[in-house]
From TrEMBL:
Protein name per the record: Uncharacterized protein
Sequence intervals crossing the membrane: 17-36, 57-75, 87-112, 133-157, 177-197, 218-237
Organism (species): Leucosporidium creatinivorum
Keywords, sorted A to Z: Membrane, Transmembrane, Transmembrane helix
Taxonomic classification: Eukaryota, Fungi, Dikarya, Basidiomycota, Pucciniomycotina
The keyword Transmembrane helix is annotated on this UniProt entry: yes
Acetylation found in the keyword field: no
Amino acid sequence: MSDEANPLLSQLESDQIIGPVLLGAMVQIALFGFTISHLINLRSTQTWIRSSGGTRAICWAVMLLNTAFTGMIAHDIWHYGTLPQRGIYDIIAGTLVQAVEPILLGVVALIVQLTLGWRSSRIIQRPRLRWGYFVFVGTLSVISFLACIGVTIESVWFHRGRYDSFAGLSFTSYLGLWMWGECLTDLVITVTYLILLRRRLWGQNEIVDSTVQLIFRLMVRSAAYTTLFAMLAAVMAQAFPELPYYDLLYTFCNPLPSLYTLSLFTTLSIGETVQKTLGSNVSQFQASHASTGHLSAGAAPLGVTQIPTRPISVRVDSNYGQVPDEGKAFEWARGPSSRDDSL
């Protein structure tokens, strides 16, 4: 390639292009360490022991994909750290490994969003509304994933020197659609769950309100990072579509696989967190009601006392080990009458 087609960049210019990529890569690697710690802690909990093979397979699959992505990110650091050329094309074309990284991120996001979307749908008792909500969440997730495929295809084409648009959309358009889609999907799952949870349980008694507040904090914290980083990546992609600031989006895009993995593990650990944080209060609440006959056998799938949806009934777990895993992270919020037609 001639010097005219591949002009040399100054140190400052190359740093402006490479810097955001490396910063995002280092954040991803740091967060990967947290995902390992969370997985180790999760495997030592009763939630993991009671989980079905499907739930465990999802956790391992997401962790495996996140590990592969982290390995690719480490390769990016090695590539740019040892790259002898200073030509603009040598830098922005990247490597084939870098070009296919988006598809791994897309698969991780798709698995986590569908899993949490299905689990959160369990709080909705009307079957039609439940399936309608899940189909809506699934549609948003699939649209985002299709945009991710477009990003991956155009990245591979660009690496190989082909500058065509795939299906008539530019790389920036696909990237914006992908990141905004991820952001919207995370918001829909979190906001819908919190609204229904508050509507169903708030105001029962002090224990219920304390638990709901704790769940609110955990859910918001779990979803905030993926939502915020996806939104910032989308904003950067649209605000800076040209060099030298084009790569700013990778500062927020590269850490997303670990953030989605942490979101999944945090959500699955909600029951243990509730039990540890409110366990003493729940035990006192149980003891105060046991003598009055207000305790009845039933399922409390988070491993804590079943939060009542009626003031006169508190359900405790008498046979938890035989409760299906499906929806355990959210099942407790459905209340004792899961077969009625009301929300």
